[in-house]
Design a protein that fits this description.
The structure holds two protein chains of two kinds. By secondary structure, chain A is an alpha+beta fold. Chain A contains two helices and 16 strands. Classes of the chains: A alpha+beta, B mainly alpha.
Chain lengths: 288, 444
């Protein structure tokens, strides 16, 4: 009996212990793991955009993390600056726009660490992701020289003394804005002067008066993030939107002649007889 | 058929035209109340938008369009049958002429109103006229409806002229002075003189002759709104004749119901005899068989083709969890029931013929519903990422209220007309028999 009781107690403890672990696991299992991405973009007017994407994996599908607070920070060596808190939207994006002129803390190499952080909640675990960015400036010139159109981009940054120095070896992309996406015109690498110059083609269609939006980008640079310049020039070919005259048909604005004539004949025939009947009835009154 | 040899049949109808009784007022009040409910539903819809109906992104046509087709079918059928009876000199059909024309006009007014209810922006209705394209079946339909309306109103008036003259001349008619003046004005000086009669007969012959092709073409145009549409179940060359046939079928059924009501409530047994019910009942059998043949032909063609989306549609029609019960009811009642109930002498009676006619009317309404709603729920491009309640159509109280008020309006017009003119064309009943009318001449 004593032995039996001991065995029963051991089994009981094991069962309970197993269950309590399972309970803890269940609690932890309830919180979903969040994957967080952060992207930096410097726009034409100097506005900086920090874009974070939050998602979690449901089986094989990636689902957005919606309506969660994401806090952005900018960090240097010693200073940590809170930039703002944004709620993630229905697609899982939280985007913070920082006006031109805001100075960020930097480390000794002039690099700022931008961090996006999401706190642990009832449904999701906490998440954090950082990106190190050194501020760079992209100056773009769109000009014509001897009837040849060219795009010249110059990429510079500030050194530790605050002097502007060119950035060599960074890939530059030149695009033209189309209806649904960007059309790549050229790409190349900056030279020792931080410059990249390319001729612009003459045969790209513009709008009805030849306008084009030229976009010059630094894409996903490890050091400088994304930098973008958008400029508008009248370098496109004029596209005529005048409608060509379509022949008379069932599907065009003008009906085929046979259709009009047939309809008129039928209607005239019917209405003639109707008016004849009405005339006869009116005549009844005149006879009376 | 009992031959009515009386020369002054108008006296049978004077009591109905004179003072209305209490029951009449109650009926008018009830019908006005039902119409009032419909008006409330309409205002509710205007304020809150079409979200109060069951129509959504996929099923954009619902009960309103079903009612439009149903009522217009009755209208064109009434005109068609009246025209054929007149031109063919169908003697036993004489008591029905006025009823058929009243059915024609009333349903022709009610039907297009449902289009206005279906339109999300009725203030843009005039664009249909301003920017009309002659290539569009909708333009054809508008032209047909407007033309038919003019023709039918004129025809309705022409068949009343002689009776207006009788009412004008009836001594001792106990009605308000304004009504006596109205009869005098509407009689346009008709005295029954030989030359006047000749002119009137010619006018009636012309109208009867043009109204037959107008009705057939008009309802065919309505059918082509569907037939020329590239949707499963609609893109079908059989639609135009099928619609015309169904229209006449429903018109006959409605005529039976109407004359039964008048026979029961107005004591007009000598005008609407058992023989009339038998003749119309046999007509119902013939049309039931034709209807069954057309339906079978339509479905077997779709089934045999084995095209993907039309097959899905057919499966939905047979599926009891979807439209199966409605499908079975409409086809069994419309194709088979009249043949059994009316065809077997043991079951045939005035009441059973009328009962079958009521069921046939319901079945043919359901048939129109099955033409529209299942097809819209089964587009060629599969429905994706849509709310479940937007995929399946379910009519709301707003739509049912407006349907009911349309029926109430129809009954109200009949009640009012009974008070205004004899419901049977008395002058025509007193006329001698004539042979087939051939255009403007009478040939014996």
């Amino acid at each position: 009996m004593k032995t039996f009781n001991i065995i029963l107690s051991i089994l009981f403890i094991l069962f309970f212990a197993d269950n309590s672990v399972a309970q803890n696991n269940k609690k932890n299992a309830k919180l979903k793991k969040v994957r967080l991405k952060i992207e930096y973009l410097k726009q034409t007017d100097g506005t900086k955009v920090l874009k974070s994407k939050l998602y979690w994996k449901d089986g094989k599908k990636f689902m957005p993390v919606v309506n969660q607070d994401v806090t952005f920070f900018a960090e240097g060596d010693t200073v940590k600056l809170k930039l703002g808190t944004i709620k993630s939207n229905e697609e899982g994006f939280a985007v913070l726009y920082i006006e031109k002129g805001v100075s960020f803390p930097v480390n000794s190499e002039g690099v700022t660490t931008f961090t996006a952080k999401m706190k642990k909640g009832k449904e999701f675990k906490s998440a954090k992701r950082s990106v190190d960015i050194k501020d760079a400036t992209l100056n773009v010139t769109l000009d014509i020289q001897d009837t040849v159109k060219y795009v010249e981009a110059k990429l510079t940054t500030l050194n530790s003394e605050g002097e502007s120095v060119p950035i060599q070896g960074t890939e530059i992309f030149v695009y033209v804005k189309r209806l649904y996406s960007l059309f790549k015109v050229a790409n190349g690498v900056t030279d020792e002067n931080g410059q990249y110059k390319v001729n612009f083609p003459n045969d790209i269609p513009g709008d009805s008066i030849g306008n084009l939006h030229v976009i010059v980008k630094v894409l996903d640079s490890d050091d400088f993030g994304n930098i973008e310049y958008i400029g508008s020039v009248k370098w496109g070919t004029v596209v005529s939107y005048a409608e060509e005259h379509l022949p008379r048909a069932l599907w065009t604005g003008e009906a085929p002649f046979w259709m009009i004539i047939a309809t008129l004949i039928i209607l005239l025939g019917a209405w003639f007889n109707f008016l004849l009947a009405v005339y006869k009835v009116i005549k009844i009154k005149s006879i009376s | 058929m009992e031959t009515l040899n009386k020369t002054n049949l108008i006296e049978d109808f004077i009591p109905y035209i004179e003072k209305p009784n209490k029951r009449w007022y109650i009926m008018v009040f009830v019908l006005l109340a039902l119409i009032g409910v419909g008006l409330y539903a309409f205002v509710y819809q205007v304020i809150y938008g079409h979200i109060v109906t069951g129509m959504r992104d996929y099923v954009v046509w619902g009960v309103y369009i079903v009612n439009f087709i149903f009522f217009l079918g009755l209208s064109y059928a009434g005109a068609l049958i009246a025209g054929i009876f007149h031109l063919a000199g169908v003697q036993w059909g004489k008591p029905f002429h006025r009823i058929l024309k009243i059915i024609t006009i009333t349903t022709l007014i009610i039907g297009p109103i449902y289009i206005l209810l279906c339109i999300g922006r009725p203030d843009r209705l005039f664009n249909l006229f301003i920017y009309a394209r002659i290539q569009s079946p909708i333009t054809w339909d508008i032209i047909a409806i407007v033309t038919d309306m003019f023709f039918c109103i004129a025809y309705l008036y022409f068949i009343h002229i002689e009776d207006f003259a009788k009412l004008r001349d009836y001594k001792g008619l106990n009605v308000a002075n304004w009504r006596k003046k109205l009869y005098r004005w509407l009689a346009i000086g008709y005295t029954g003189a030989k030359e006047q009669k000749k002119l009137l007969n010619q006018a009636l012959n012309i109208m009867a002759a043009i109204i037959i092709p107008t009705s057939i073409i008009a309802y065919s145009l309505l059918a082509w709104l569907f037939g020329m549409n590239l949707r499963p179940g609609w893109h079908n060359s059989i639609f135009a004749p099928f619609f015309v046939l169904t229209a006449i079928y429903s018109g006959i059924a409605l005529l039976i119901v109407v004359i039964w009501v008048y026979r029961k409530n107005s004591g007009l047994e000598k005008y609407f005899t058992e023989e009339h019910f038998n003749y119309l009942g046999f007509a119902l059998i013939i049309f039931a068989l034709f209807y069954g043949y057309f339906s079978f032909s339509e479905y077997i063609t779709e089934w045999y083709n084995s095209q993907k989306t039309p097959s899905i549609l057919l499966n939905k029609l047979w599926d009891l969890s979807e439209f199966g019960y409605l499908f079975l009811f409409s086809n069994i009642v419309a194709s088979i029931l009249p043949v059994i109930i009316i065809g077997i002498p043991k079951f045939r009676s005035i009441n059973s013929i009328t009962f079958v006619s009521v069921l046939v009317l319901i079945a043919l309404w359901i048939k129109r519903y099955l033409i529209i709603v299942p097809t819209l729920e089964t587009p060629y491009i599969p429905i994706q990422d849509s709310r479940l309640d937007w995929v399946h159509y379910s009519p709301t109280w707003v739509e049912w209220a407006l349907t009911m008020s349309g029926v109430a309006f129809f009954v109200l017009i009949f009640i009012l007309m009974t008070k205004f003119v004899p419901i049977v064309c008395v002058s025509e009943m007193e006329e001698k028999s004539h042979g087939i009318r051939f255009f403007y001449k009478t040939r014996k």
